């Protein structure tokens, strides 16, 4: 990145105002208020089967995001046979987010131009913008400009993605709302209004926010054992809520690692466990990961000293300097 480049992190959006998307702003605000009301009034009244159904849907939808659009279609960190790709597309529909194409394009732009005006959810603009505010505004001109340069051919060559793109709205209605709401009343006589608010609102809103935390909290709070120079951090809370996506400092250094983390295969990383399970079935294969030596060198050269096993060279130099001062004293 050269001096004066429009992607310089000091670049201002002055003169390039983004307009408020009122439909998004009003709908996002309204559904969050309804979710808050439902959590207080309805959640304590639902049957335990409905609660477990909500947890299942949360994991399924989360896996569609973490294992599907993120690790498979965006980063190509592993390969998947068509049955698994279909499962991932269905799970992604359960999450109720955007199309696979739009999600992958935005995330590839995010990685390529992280924390610049070309980053759709630039965390340098604050927690609220990175979390949800970016969805309430038209895209920054740099996002549109540089987004057009992202190669998406590999994604659109997948027939599963093409099918999902063609029937996106119908699939979202069926798998994010219709089935989740209908199952509790039909199978264990839950009240329809409780199911509609619990599964159609609370479960949906919580799933969105858990995913958004990766863009916001995991770019602001936490340590940086792999690269102290970048914004993404290691955030345990986000890792728990987002099925293993909170180990974000590591992920931005090694985005092609199918684990999206280093500290143990299943340490607060359910997505990795599910991918490994499908690997045993032969549906996931060519799982990519760096060598231990590669990770160690990276920690020593660029880490902030917080890695539990290896120390950064900066820390070693500082410690030697302190020892020298003590001896001179």
TrEMBL record:
Keyword rRNA processing: no
Gene Ontology BP terms: unsaturated fatty acid biosynthetic process
A Pfam family assignment: FA_desaturase
Top-rank taxon: Eukaryota
Residue stretches making up the Fatty acid desaturase domain: 48-255
TM region positions: 22-45, 51-70, 82-104, 167-188, 200-221
Membrane topology: Multi-pass membrane protein
Compositional bias annotation for Basic and acidic residues: 312-323
Cofactor: Fe(2+)
GO cellular component: endoplasmic reticulum membrane
Region (Disordered): 299-329
Record carries keyword Lipid biosynthesis: yes
A GO term for molecular function: stearoyl-CoA 9-desaturase activity
Primary location class: membrane
Keywords of this entry: Fatty acid biosynthesis, Fatty acid metabolism, Iron, Lipid biosynthesis, Lipid metabolism, Membrane, Oxidoreductase, Transmembrane, Transmembrane helix
Compartment(s) where it occurs, according to its Swiss-Prot or TrEMBL record: Membrane
Record note on domains: The histidine box domains are involved in binding the catalytic metal ions.
Family: Belongs to the fatty acid desaturase type 1 family.
Protein name according to UniProt: Fatty acid desaturase domain-containing protein
Organism: Cryptotermes secundus
């Amino acid at each position: 990145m050269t001096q004066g480049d429009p992607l310089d992190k000091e670049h201002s959006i002055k003169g390039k105002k983004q307009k408020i998307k009122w439909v998004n702003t009003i709908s996002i605000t309204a559904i969050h208020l309804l979710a808050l009301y439902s959590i207080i009034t309805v959640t304590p009244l639902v049957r335990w089967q409905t609660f477990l159904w909500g947890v299942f849907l949360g994991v399924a939808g989360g896996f569609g995001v973490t294992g599907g659009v993120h690790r498979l279609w965006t980063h190509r960190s592993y390969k998947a046979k068509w049955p698994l790709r279909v499962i991932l597309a269905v799970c992604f529909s359960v999450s109720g987010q955007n199309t696979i194409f739009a999600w992958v394009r935005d995330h590839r732009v995010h990685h390529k131009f992280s924390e610049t005006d070309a980053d759709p959810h630039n965390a340098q603009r604050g927690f609220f913008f990175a979390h949800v505010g970016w969805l309430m505004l038209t895209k920054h001109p740099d996002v549109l400009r540089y987004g057009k340069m992202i190669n998406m051919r590999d994604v659109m060559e997948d027939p599963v993605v093409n099918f999902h793109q063609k029937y996106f709205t119908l699939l979202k209605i069926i798998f994010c709302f219709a089935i989740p709401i209908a199952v509790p009343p039909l199978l264990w006589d839950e009240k329809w209004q409780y199911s509609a608010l619990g599964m159609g609102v609370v479960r949906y809103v919580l799933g969105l926010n858990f995913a958004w935390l990766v863009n916001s909290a995991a770019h602001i709070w936490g340590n940086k054992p792999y690269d102290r120079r970048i914004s993404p951090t290691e955030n345990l809370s986000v890792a728990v809520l987002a099925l293993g996506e909170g180990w974000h400092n590591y992920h931005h250094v090694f985005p092609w690692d199918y684990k999206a983390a280093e500290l143990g295969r299943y340490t607060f990383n359910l997505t990795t466990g599910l991918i490994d399970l499908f690997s045993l079935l032969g549906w996931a294969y060519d799982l990519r990961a760096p060598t231990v030596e590669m990770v160690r060198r990276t920690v020593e050269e660029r880490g902030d000293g917080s890695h539990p096993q290896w120390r950064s060279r900066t820390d070693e130099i500082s410690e030697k300097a302190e020892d020298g001062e003590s001896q001179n004293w």
